[in-house]
Structures are given as structure tokens and as C-alpha cells.
């Protein structure tokens, strides 16, 4: 077993995965899905010159000498609610009452808000006044949102490979995309293994613990926008492991993800069953926490075997599986956002690339971090109390207090 850096192991895994095929889905189902097309605007946004305020549309030039001592009174010749298409055009001395979002008529280059006029009645249903008086100059384009101000026809608004958030869905709706081409979501078969594991909801029994990895990893898979097919707990027997892996094959999943059962223990049958039906590599990755990482295939389905200890399973998922699911799901950049944080205390490491549980605080735009108690790989509570993982690079044995390191926010 050769010693791999985290980066080498990640690259080796990623090199086995290509984006899945794509599908067309309705916009309402698009949250968090990854775009598989470039979005090109077929309309200008806004699509017509419109008012940014409830007020009066006028010709700015009419107000060039207007001041409190020389007020300007204009004849109100039209009323333009939002959604209407004004046919009038204003001549000097005229104004039109106009609502926010309404199309501004020909000859109009500005809107004065109603609160800057002598017409104060703004209750619903009020008719426009015959005249309106103002006491200040208005600027050309004041409160007019011109056609194409935000988006021009032909602009590329979103690129293939981005994850759609609520804002992107909003602009897709503005641009008339009722359906969007997206990448299919990876389908992941998930199983735990070990005779000590109980289903959650069952009282503890001597020598047994509850299967927490199934729940935690299912949540992580979902947070990576993949679909989970939970296969449950394999007993430490050849038959039980085979039965569950065959279920994964029958469901035609994209990845099989397991936890535990792949170390060198006498009851670690996952390793043996996968090897007998495909191939399995063990990599000693220069990281902490993390035992050897198992990667291979079972009947041509990619197989990733994470360690059994809950914190190791979590970190292994974040380091190796999230980016894999991102690649399968078409994401062009699946890397996690990082922040630089200052260590509040000295941190000792053992020279492996370490992912340490920490709390980070912000003060005046700077982040500082301290560890959340003991870092044993079975201690899930210290991960629950953390809001970040500090990444101590390989080769570093001591980070002095006050030094900066990179962190992933959880
Ligand atoms: P193993 O890799 O099978 O040697 O397991 C390593 C450690 O992880 C042992 O302490 C197991 O009891 C624990 N473990 C394995 N699977 C799970 C699981 N699904 N949930 C919680 N702990 C587990
Ligand atoms: Mg075990």
C-alpha cells in the first residue's frame, strides 16, 4: 500500500467519474439542480422602459426652472397603471400619473415620486388629479428603469455546470424558461456493516450501538444533491453483505457507498465480497482522521468504502465523496468554499493532513478558531459542537497560536 496525499487520492477517484446524462424538468423542480445548458436571454430585462416609483411621469425639460419659489403645475392627461400599454405621448406642460412597474409613455424621460408633489392622496381607488404641482427640478431618467438596463437580448445569464439557487430560478422565470435542461442526480446505494449495529429506535442492548452512519451519510448524500437508496445494515457475514450489494446492482445505482467492514478485521466481509465480484483498492491516505480508504467496483458499479468510526466517515465523505457526487451531477466546480482562520491556541498535529473539529468566530471581518474538545474519531459530539473543519497541511506538526490556517465551514 503506497502512501497517497489527500489530493492524489481525490484525483484518482474523480478520474473514474464523468457527468451523468441530462434531463428536461419544470422550473418548479429546479432548486439545487445543476444546469446542463447555457442560459441565453431571449428578452431584454426590463422588457420596456418603466417607472421605479408611484408618481407622475413628465418631461424633465419642463422642470428646468422649477424651485420652491417658482413651482411648476402640469396638466395630468392620463393615468397609467402597471400592466397597461400607454398610447399617449406627452407634450410640454403635461404629466401622467404612473404606478411602479408601469410602462412610461413616449416623450417621457422622468418620474417624480408622488411624495414630492402636491398630490398626497395615495389610497387605493383614488382618481388622478386634474393638475399636479411640483417645486423641484427633475433629472433626465430619474426613476425610469430603461429597457435592457439589467439584461440584454443575447446575454449569457447562467452557464452550464452551475447549481441553481432561488435567485437563478427567479431570473429563469423572468426570461420565460418554463423548463430547463439539468444533469441527472446521482443515485447512491448506502449501507452500513457490522454485527454490533442496531436500527435506530431500538433500545440499546449489551455490546450493541445504534447505526448512526446510515442516517448521517444519507443526510450528507442529500446535501450533495444526490438521491439515497438506503440498503440498511449488513451483518458481518458473506451472505448478508452479498445480499445488500446485489440490491444495489438491481437498483442500477451510480455509486455504492459503505461504512466500516473494510479494515483488516477478522469479520470484515465487505472487502472480500467486493473483491470477489469486481475489484477493490486500499489506499493509505496521508490524512487524519481516516483509515485506509477503499475504492473499487462491484459488478461495474463504483464502490467507495468509508471508515466505520462516525467522524472518520463524515470527514471521508467531505473529502472524497462530495466532490465525486458533484462531478457525477455535472457541477463544474464542486470544491468547498474555504475561509482563512487564525488559531486561538497552539494546535499539535502528527504530520498527516488533518481535518480538525473547531468553532470559528468572526470579529471585525477576521475569523479565529479553537478546537472543540477531544478529536477521537468516534466522538461525534465534538463534530456536532464544531462549525468548521480546520485543515492542517501534511508535514505540519505544530501550528503556533496566532497563525492562520484554511478551514471549511460546516
Ligand atoms: P470497523 O471499520 O468495522 O472496524 O468499525 C470501526 C468503528 O466504527 C467501530 O467502533 C464500529 O463499531 C464503528 N461503526 C461502524 N459502523 C458504524 C455505524 N454504522 N454507526 C456507528 N458506528 C459504526
Ligand atoms: Mg466492523
Describe this structure in words.
The chain has 410 residues and is an alpha/beta fold. The chain is 18% helix and 32% strand. It is built from 7 helices and 28 strands. Strand 20 and strand 21 (301-306) form a beta hairpin. The mean pLDDT is 94. Magnesium ion (MG) is lined by residues 194, 260-261, 265, 308. Residues 194, 260-261, 265, 308 line the site of magnesium ion.
Provide tags for this entry.
7-stranded mixed sheet; elongated; 410 residues; binds adenosine monophosphate; 5-stranded mixed sheet; single chain; binds magnesium ion; alpha/beta
Q: Give the count of helical stretches.
A: 7
Biggest sheet details: 7 strands, mixed
How much helicity do the residues have?
A: 10-25%
Shape: elongated
Alpha carbon gyration radius: 31 Å
Number of strands: 28
- The neighbouring-strand order within the major sheet is 1-18-20-21-17-13-16
Percent of residues in beta strands: 25-35%
As residue ranges, the low-confidence spans are: none
Bound ligand species: adenosine monophosphate, magnesium ion
Helix/strand-derived class?
alpha/beta
Mean of pLDDT:
94
Distance between the termini: 32 Å
Amino acid at each position: 500500500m503506497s502512501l497517497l496525499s489527500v489530493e492524489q487520492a481525490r484525483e484518482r477517484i474523480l478520474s473514474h467519474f464523468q457527468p451523468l446524462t441530462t434531463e428536461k424538468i419544470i422550473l418548479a423542480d429546479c432548486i439545487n439542480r445543476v444546469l446542463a445548458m447555457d442560459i441565453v436571454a431571449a428578452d431584454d430585462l426590463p422588457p420596456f422602459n418603466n417607472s421605479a416609483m408611484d408618481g407622475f411621469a413628465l418631461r424633465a425639460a419642463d422642470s428646468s426652472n422649477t424651485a420652491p419659489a417658482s413651482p411648476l403645475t402640469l396638466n395630468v392627461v392620463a393615468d397609467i397603471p402597471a400592466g397597461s400599454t400607454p398610447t399617449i405621448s406627452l407634450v410640454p406642460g403635461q404629466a401622467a400619473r404612473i404606478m411602479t412597474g408601469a410602462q412610461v409613455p413616449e416623450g417621457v424621460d422622468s418620474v417624480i415620486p408622488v411624495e414630492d408633489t402636491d398630490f398626497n392622496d395615495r389610497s387605493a381607488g383614488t382618481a388622478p388629479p386634474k393638475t399636479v404641482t411640483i417645486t423641484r427640478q427633475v433629472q433626465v431618467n430619474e426613476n425610469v428603469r430603461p429597457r435592457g438596463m439589467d439584461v440584454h437580448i443575447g446575454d449569457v445569464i447562467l452557464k452550464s455546470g452551475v447549481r441553481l439557487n432561488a435567485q437563478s430560478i427567479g431570473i429563469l422565470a423572468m426570461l420565460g424558461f418554463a423548463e430547463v435542461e439539468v444533469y441527472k442526480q446521482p443515485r447512491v446505494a448506502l449501507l452500513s456493516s457490522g454485527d454490533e449495529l442496531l436500527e435506530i429506535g431500538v433500545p440499546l442492548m449489551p455490546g450493541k450501538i445504534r447505526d448512526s452512519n446510515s442516517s448521517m451519510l444519507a443526510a450528507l448524500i442529500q446535501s450533495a444533491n444526490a438521491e439515497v437508496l438506503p440498503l440498511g445494515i449488513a451483518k458481518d457475514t458473506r451472505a448478508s453483505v452479498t445480499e445488500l450489494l446485489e440490491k444495489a446492482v438491481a437498483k442500477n445505482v451510480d455509486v455504492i457507498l459503505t461504512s466500516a467492514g473494510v479494515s483488516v478485521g477478522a469479520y470484515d466481509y465487505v472487502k472480500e465480497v467486493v473483491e470477489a465480484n469486481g475489484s477493490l483498492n486500499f489506499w493509505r491516505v496521508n490524512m487524519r482522521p481516516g483509515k485506509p480508504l477503499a475504492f473499487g467496483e462491484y459488478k461495474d458499479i463504483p464502490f467507495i468504502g468509508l471508515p466505520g468510526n462516525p467522524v472518520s466517515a463524515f470527514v471521508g465523505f467531505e473529502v472524497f465523496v462530495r466532490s465525486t457526487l458533484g462531478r457525477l451531477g455535472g457541477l463544474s466546480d464542486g470544491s468547498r468554499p474555504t475561509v482563512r482562520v487564525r488559531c486561538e491556541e497552539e494546535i499539535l498535529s502528527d504530520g498527516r493532513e488533518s481535518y480538525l473539529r473547531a468553532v470559528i468566530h468572526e470579529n471585525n471581518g477576521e475569523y479565529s478558531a479553537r478546537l472543540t474538545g477531544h478529536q477521537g474519531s468516534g466522538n461525534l459530539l465534538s463534530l456536532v459542537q464544531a462549525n468548521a473543519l480546520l485543515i492542517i497541511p501534511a508535514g505540519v506538526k505544530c501550528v503556533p497560536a496566532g497563525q492562520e490556517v484554511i478551514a471549511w465551514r460546516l
